[in-house]
Amino acid sequence: MPVKRILLVDDELELLKAMRIRLASWGYDVLTATNGQEAIQLVRKEVPDAIILDIKMPEMDGIETLKRIRHFNKEIPVFMLTAYGDEERFEKTRKLGISGFIQKGNEFENASEFVRVALKGQK
Amino acid sequence: MAQKEKKSLSEGLVKKAIVTPRQLKQTQDTLANRGAELRTIVENNPDGLIVVSKDGAVLFFNEVAMFHLNRNKEELSGKPLGLPIDISKSTEIDIVRTGGGRGIAQVCAVEIEWEKKLAYLVMIHDITELKRLDQLKDEFLSTVSHELRTPLTTMKEFASIISDEIPGKLTKEQKEYVDIIKCNIDLLTRLINNLLDISKIESGKIEPKKALVDITDLANSVISLLKPEMERKHIEFETLFPQAALNVYADPDKVTQIFTNLIGNAVKFTPGKGRILIEIIDKDSEIECSVSDTGVGIASENLSKLFTKFQQFGRVPGAGAKGTGLGLAITKELVQRHNGRIRVESELGKGSKFIFTLPKYSKEVILYEAVETGITGAKKENKEFSIFIIRLDDYPEGEKEFEENRAQKVFLPISAALEKVMQSGDFVTGNNEIIAFAQVNKTEASGVIRQLKMVIKVPILEIEEQFKMGFSYGYATYPDDADNAKDLLEKAYQSCVREREERLKKAIMIVDDEPEARNIVRKILQASGYSNFSEAGNGEEAFEKIKTAIPDLLILDMRMPRMNGYELIGMLKENTETKDIPVLIMSGSAVEIDKLEEYIKKKAIPVVGKPLDTEQLIKLVNYLL
Q1: Of B472, B194, B227, B215, which Cα lies nearest the Cα of B322?
Q2: Hey, which bits of B47-183 come out as E strands?
Q3: Bridge partners, residue B464, by sequence
Q4: Is the per-residue pLDDT at A123 higher than 50?
Q5: Nearest to A26, CA basis, from A123, A118, A113
Q6: What are B493-541's pLDDT values in tens digits?
Q7: pLDDT in tens, A37-79
Q8: Does residue A21 belong to the interface with chain B, where contact is any CB pair within 8 Å?
């Protein structure tokens, strides 16, 4: 089975590194981006199998990034990284095609299950 | 004579009171001074003060009141106040002060006696600055907690990576230490989260998102999450729930949080092999839930402090997640937000019992609240808000089976149909009504009711196969028709009533060669409110009459002399003005469908048998009109 590739997007570099190490330890190939523009380019060029996208980013936030990605790719499963208590605010954005919300600092360890399930549905 | 009497009387009075003119003058001066002093106090009071008579007219006011309300003397004295007067609670209102400054004020009222009559003293207290500070506090808290959380998250992730030995193997000691770091990061995170929770709840920022939910269901899902821990500690647990689902009108997430906190505490403070009992009791006016345990218990001197912030008792030393001291404070706030009560009974060393109640609401209140929430949401987002009421008439009281099937049979088809025409919507059942509300944009709004009419007929008719029921429907829109919940509901009801009234006035033509048969049909329909009838004894007569006045519905017997029903339908089909008249066939024998050709097939003309089935006739007529 080919190694699944995940694009990880967050503007906080150290956290990005931690999450990359975690995902790599689960056996994923990890691409990283630190802002929305970069993420969109990577999605176009590399077509990852899933995206983990921070909602709160300067300049272009996660929702805007996702909207732009959905213009040209409607299939990729996307997980949004949220802060505690923010989920409700973003519940409405689910219709943009969000596979799940991952709460920062609380659930990332358990996020593998989420991601695995989403990737299983793909060919 | 009269003059004399008067004089002597006043002389007598003066004598009796022994008041000299000088003393009288003094008293008058003192009174005048007091009056001036009191006026000074009233005028310099920072709160607006207004006295309003029982029937709502302004009797007295101070300068501040004029300033806050931006109304001059003439606009206030004797005029209606135009503010809510509620002696049971204070209300917040937006104010535009003289000069255009905007602000928020708190209005409260007390009953007083004014000129020997019952009146209200209304006080307007400017809370603009308080509100601003409160908002600053909220923003500060949310910024700080976010700033604190970001580094914590990174710390947590790296500590977990080390603990999971991803970079390399750890010694037993190293692993122990890094796990302690991890535990404390978790505790800090929980603390921040709880603080954020409690500040949001206390500031009233989080309004419970109430819905009708089965409370036993919520409790069970919490129990299943905590079950592994209970089994690990060999805790025996028992639930005493009512047999049937028990609906409460509450925010499911918040009720889940209440159960999680209380049952979680019970599990935490109950030693191995203890017992936990969870009870839900359906009482007359409220629902009572309780969690009892055989845990460490709480000393009586600590009971009063239990629900305050940062209080922790009976801390279990050693392993396990440490508490934040905020759980019960949050729980209490959440219960109170739902207008419930919470209390505790406990004995040190024996165990504790936490009891909370949730009020039961009448369907009307639920309906009203739901609409109000909808309006508030629409106002906030500057959206248009529409409400639809589908009223089920003749709904048989106590029809158990229907009650149970309502959700599946009425709700789902309607909700599915409505979803197609609305951007977002919600549903509530009232007594005999289904209320659907939606946020729609202006152009859509007028079309929706028409589409609604088309889609709701089918599912409701399916129900009518089994239950005697008619329906009418109405709608109203915020902000055009109304700007508050009460008004909106009222307007929608009115439109509902109007729809029914208009329908009952529609012209029905009954065509049958037997006068007796026509009479029966007319009487049945009259009994359910219809009033506009015409009759014909055969197709030819009917055709002549239709030429002068086109009816809204034709109830047609097929076998008639001269021109029969088939022939009449054929004739009507030829004319653009008459081809769309709805037809209801009334026939003793099987209808020869092929005779009606395409016409009947296309229109799917319903048939009632003879002898007449009254209910079926009424519901078909309701449907066709």
Answers
A1: B194
A2: 48-53, 58-61, 91-96, 102-114, 117-126
A3: none
A4: no
A5: A113
A6: 777 777 777 888 888 898 888 888 888 888 888 877 788 888 888 888 8
A7: 999 999 999 999 999 999 888 888 888 899 999 889 888 889 8
A8: yes
Q: Is B483 exposed, middle or buried (0-12, 13-18, 19+ CB in 10 A)?
A: exposed
Q: How far is A107 from chain B (nearest CA, A)?
A: 10
Q: What is the pLDDT of residue A100?
A: 80
| Cβ within 8 Å of B, A 48-87 | 83-85
- Given a cut of 50, the residues of chain B with pLDDT beneath it are 1-2, 4, 319, 394-404, 406-408, 420-425, 430-431, 441-443, 445, 455-469, 599, 601-602, 604
Task: Show the tokens assigned to B197.
Answer: 């929770």
Alpha helices in B397-514 (DSSP H): 400-406, 412-421, 442-464, 485-504
Q: With contact defined as beta carbons under 8 Å apart, do A6 and A49 qualify? A: yes
Q: What is the dihedral of CA B229, B192, A115, B260, to 10 degrees?
A: 30
CA atoms within 13 A on the CB side of B252: 12
- Nearest chain B Cα distance for residue A120, angstroms: 24
Contact between B154 and A19 using a beta-carbon 8 Å cutoff: no
Instruction: Tally C-beta pairs within 8 A across A and B.
Output: 45
A69-96: per-residue pLDDT in tens? 988 988 888 988 887 666 666 666 777 7
Task: Give the separation between CA B5 and CA B555, rounded to whole angstroms.
Answer: 92
CA dihedral B607, B611, B613, B616 (to 10 degrees): 10
Q: Three-class SS of residue B191? A: helix
Residues B107 and B88 sit within 8 Å (Cβ to Cβ): no
Q: Between vectors from CA A72 to CA A71 and to CA A75, what angle results, nearest 5°?
A: 100
